[in-house]
Amino acid sequence: MGAENNGSLDLQSVFLTGIPGLEAQHGWLSIPFFAMYIVAIVGNSLIMAAVQVDSALHEPMYLFLSMLAITEVGVSVSTLPTVMGILWFDARRIDFDGCLAQMFFIHTFSCMESGVLLAMSYDRFVAIYNPLRYTVILTLPRIISMGLGITLKSVALMAPLPILLRQLPYCHINILSHSYCLHSDLIQLPCADTKLNSILGLAIVLATFGMDSLLIVVSYVLILYTVLGIASGEGRKKALNTCVSHICAVLVYYVPMIGVSVMHRAAKHASPMVHTLMSSIYLFVPPVLNPIIYSIKTQPIRQGIITLLSCKKELI
């Protein structure tokens, strides 16, 4: 594992955990997990391709949706190797640097996803509050700048986490409680005081997910206020209908996140399976459900995917 030094180790690898209590059923469990990965990656890739190919979808709302799809593919691809490696081959060991890299990508893409959801709420506010200047305010260069800003912010905030963890001395215990590497798991391993890491992690959560969720709520308060000012009942209904898919995406993302936070703090002694289940829902459900939600509720996206698949079928 590594050379001992004053009771600590130069950690070279860690061991991941499958689904506690269901180790004998990993072969069967791999089927639904692999199906979820296929739905998440293929579904979001179809949305990205449809937006790129169909000029009718080159509008701010769909460009932001394409960004959301990119982040969800990123989250899925980040967890896939270790999750499926454990379920298929019982491959629990992972290089420590590889674990830090996986942690960085999982948290970075999750942070980006939160930022994109905030940008999408701003998009809905502009579309409802000032529809005549919608495409003037949200121009392509401005949308690209917002996307780059979200990416750079996420990378800058998450980069210190693996760097700080790499500097700490580690004890003999090197077993994590999930099938992937998370910061909350890794800070349990060092022998040294991890107060700085915990404070930094909490600050990042508040600065990203906390602030983003607050601003999303503010956006929808303003949207509701604007909608109530529309004289026509049909107009109010039409305006709110444009927000349904995004509201579903926000709930699908933030409700499991809140559930995981509550479990870590208020139910520390709950069954390990419950903690694993909640973390899996948080990471797996949004990438799976969002392409389904947008395909069902957003007619232009549905039509764009159908057109894309029809064109590919004709080429074959």
Could you explain how this protein is built, in words?
With 316 residues, the protein is mostly helical. Helices cover 75% and strands 3% of the residues. The protein contains 12 helices and 4 strands; from the N terminus they run βββααβαααααααααα. The chain has helices spanning 26-53, 60-89, 96-129, 134-137, 140-158, 160-167, 183-186, 195-228, 233-241, 244-266, 272-297, 299-315; strands at 4-5, 8-9, 13-15, 93-95. A two-stranded antiparallel sheet has the order 1-2. It has a two-stranded antiparallel sheet with strand order 3-4. Helix 3 packs across helix 10 (244-266). The longest helix is centred in the middle third of the chain and has 34 residues, at 96-129. It is globular. The protein starts with a strand and ends with a helix.
Notable features of this structure?
single chain, about 325 residues, mainly alpha, two-stranded antiparallel sheet, 12 helices, about 75% helix
The computed structural class is mainly alpha
> What kind of sheet is the major sheet?
2 strands, antiparallel
Strand order of the largest sheet: 1-2
Strand content: under 5%
Provide the low-confidence segments as ranges: 1-7
Average predicted confidence as pLDDT:
91
Distance between the termini: 52 Å
If you compute it from the alpha carbons, what radius of gyration comes out, rounded to the nearest whole angstrom?
21 Å
SSE order: EEEHHEHHHHHHHHHH
Overall shape: globular
Give the % helix. Answer: over 70%
Instruction: Please provide the count of β strands.
Output: 4
Q: Helical stretch count?
A: 12
